[in-house]
Amino acid sequence: MPATTLAAAKRPPAAERVYAHVKQAVLDRRYEGGTLLTEGELAEAVGVSRTPVREALLKLEVEGLLRLYPKKGALVLPVSAQEIADVVETRLLVETHSVRKAVPAPAALLDRLGELLDKQRVQAEAGDFAAAAVTDRCFHAEIVRSGGNEILSRLYDQLRDRQLRMGVAVMHSHPDRIAKTLTEHEEILAALTAGDTEAAVAVVTRHVGWFQNLARGEVR
Q: Fewer Cβ atoms within 10 A, N terminus or C terminus of the chain?
């Protein structure tokens, strides 16, 4: 089989390519909330016809990232205060339970959290907020997964896209927050290392709860 034919065979379907392109751009804020996307522009950007673009946009509308307007395009929905509040409430329920369950923390978990903390610090210093948001989410997901509850882990994973989008938005609008995030991650790791359950819960509550202040317009 010719190399060009083989390469084409390995490429994902056109609708999947459009879906991945738009979703990633929305999550890392290349397409910010309030942006109106047209089928023609997206078809040209990805190099496909308009039919797979429509299919991809419908899927993204179901996921709550876009709102479609016939003959106009798709509006990227901003992160709402209600969405932030809902995500924070769910995160607090899952993460405070998970951090309690993580004590005493196994060495493998502590090592992994240390690696992610170092990685996020490098990303923050480089100003790569999108990458730092991904690492931030991984840090917390490691603690949730350490409990061994697959149902709880899947529930937490369902928040992934919303967390990433919120995280990138916050880092851009509140660039000083990344330093506080790193400090609080250090405190969580220190509490887990010391086996201090209540200290770990307190830091997680303060760390995640900060977003509630954001939703209420009470950021400090």
A: C
